[in-house]
Write a structure and sequence with these properties.
3 domains, Heat Shock Protein 90, alpha+beta, 8 strands, 11 helices
């Protein structure tokens, strides 16, 4: 049987018993409430019945007094009869369920009506001047016949209600005792049935859960598991899963040891490869530096020789002009000198200048990877202000508006960080769209941990330089941070190494650099720099 069925059974049995007990409690409570209502009704009936006799007797006394003094003016009181009628109507409603009492009320009403008619006859005779002797003769008895009848029916009515009141009170006391006994029995029975349910649960489920918990602990500690539980419920299923997991863990442990050994060997190999790559990188940087440095001498010679050739060209042309050769020869020599020789000299000087710029760029890239940094806390706000001071002429020339947000400090080399923002802001100024006013914004994003591709444990702040310039096409995004790659070569001068230096410096600081751009709308260059001392691996 599944746990759900067992649980429902354990809940259903006590629930049925409790419902039966609650039914008995509600039944006795309803009987007690009914008895209390009957007692209250009997008391109210007796009170109403006792209050109906006095008004009638007072009215009879007034009538006799009026006959004796022969003045019936103060007996004409219709309100007393209205009050008596309302009292009897109320009394009739109270005993509506008892036909015998209803008949008695009707008899009392008839007696009241009869005496009311007699009183009305006395008043009418007095007003008409008729003789009151016959009416006075009817009042000679101690109690007039209608009032005697009313009194007799009222006494019978009160006796019956007193008897019923005693019965109702006895029934109320008996029902109250039964209610208390039933309530106590329900509470005790509920406690007993739930105690029995808890005992069954603890005996059946508790033992099985204890075995399951013990197996889970043994599995966590790597100890052998106890025998599997019997049955087909969920607890037995979990225990079976624990046994299967234990078997798989043993197999996985053996595989883990083997994998650990392979990983350790691989780690040794990777460390060796990383050392080779580091040495190779250093060798490449040294090679680039050496080659670039060595190429400077031939370039200097080429520049010197190009100048010598230019001087020789000028001397040769002056000599030809002073010699004044024949016109055909002069034209031929002028064509050679002003055409091929002059153009060749121009190409030579341009090529030497370009080669020198490329060599200088290579040297700058090489030095960016070999310079020793002086680590300290750098005020980025002051650094950006310094850069903007040096770029004031370019800013005015481009009619650009530069907005600088609050920039928190970074951890790094002051010169290197200044070079980052100089290249980024200069790049933004160079590639503004001349068709609209230029806007440049320098700010910072919220600090975020550096991604997994960078040294673990370093936290960074991401600074950005945003512009509304020409933007970068999607096809060119992968080439932005490559050396000598220039998207808009006709817009700005340079060799295309500024962004390469930005990325190289950021990576040496344990951060990174990237760009987001939409062609025709502008670009945002991001650079993540450490905000605390870095831990370089």
């Amino acid at each position: 049987m599944k746990l759900l069925a067992k649980g429902l059974l354990l809940i259903a049995v006590p629930g049925v018993v409790e419902l039966a007990l609650l039914g008995a409690v509600f039944d006795t409570q309803q009987q007690t409430a009914q008895s209390a209502q009957w007692v209250s009704s009997s008391k109210q009936i007796l009170y109403q019945a006792s209050a109906t006799m006095d008004p009638l007797l007072r009215e009879a006394a007034r009538l006799r007094t009026a006959l004796i003094v022969n003045d019936v003016s103060f007996t004409d009181r219709p309100a007393i009869w209205v009050d008596l009628d309302e009292r009897l109507s109320h009394l009739e409603r109270l005993v509506a369920g008892n036909s015998r009492q209803v008949r008695r009320v009707h008899d009392m009403r008839g007696a009241v009506d009869s005496y009311r008619a007699h009183a009305a006859a006395v008043v009418a005779a007095s007003h008409n001047g008729s003789s009151l002797a016959p009416l006075i003769a009817s009042e000679r008895d101690d109690i007039p016949a209608p009032i005697a009848l009313f009194h007799d029916r009222l006494d019978a009515f009160v006796d019956e209600e007193s008897r019923l009141d005693a019965q109702h009170l006895a029934a109320f006391v008996d029902n109250r005792q039964r209610q208390q006994i039933t309530l106590i029995a329900a509470v005790v029975g509920s406690m007993l049935i739930w105690a029995l349910t808890a005992w069954v649960f603890a005996r059946h489920f508790g033992q099985r859960i204890e075995v399951l918990t013990g197996n889970a602990g043994r599995l966590g500690n790597g100890a052998p598991l106890a025998a599997p539980l019997r049955g087909n419920d969920e607890i037995a299923g979990l225990d079976a899963v624990l046994h299967q997991t234990g078997a798989r863990l043993q197999t996985a442990g053996l595989e883990h040891e083997s994998l650990k050994a392979r990983l350790e060997a691989r780690a040794v190999e990777l460390a060796a490869v990383n050392e080779e790559l580091r040495q190779g990188t250093q060798e490449n940087e040294m090679f680039i530096y050496s080659v670039s440095h060595d190429l400077r001498s031939p370039l200097v010679n080429l520049q010197g020789f190009s100048k010598e050739l230019q001087v020789s060209y000028d001397d040769l042309r002056a000599t030809i002009e002073s010699a004044r050769p024949p016109e055909p020869q002069q034209q031929r020599l002028a064509a050679v000198l002003d055409g091929d020789v002059r153009e060749s000299l121009q190409f030579l000087r341009t090529a030497v200048t370009q080669a020198a710029a490329i060599i200088d760029s290579l040297l700058r890239i090489s030095r960016a990877g070999r310079l020793e940094y002086h680590w300290q806390r750098v005020s980025v706000g002051q650094t950006v202000a310094k850069v903007l001071d040096t770029l004031q002429s370019a800013t005015r020339e481009r009619a650009a508006v530069v907005t600088v947000r609050d920039l928190p400090p970074a951890w790094g080399d002051p010169v290197a960080i200044e070079q980052i923002f100089r290249n980024l802001i200069a790049n933004a100024l160079s590639y503004l769209d001349p068709a609209r006013p230029g806007r440049i914004e320098v700010g910072v994003l919220e600090a975020d941990p550096v991604d997994q591709a960078h040294p673990v444990g370093n936290s960074t702040r991401t600074y950005y330089v945003r512009d509304n310039g020409l933007g970068i096409s999607a096809a060119y995004m992968s080439k932005v941070f490559r050396a000598f790659q220039r998207l808009h070569g006709d817009v700005a001068k340079g060799e295309g190494i500024g962004l390469v230096l930005v990325r190289r410096i950021a990576e040496r600081h344990g951060g990174r650099a990237w760009v987001e751009s939409v062609e025709g709308m502008g670009s945002t260059f991001y650079v993540a720099l450490p905000d605390q001392p870095v831990r370089m691996s």
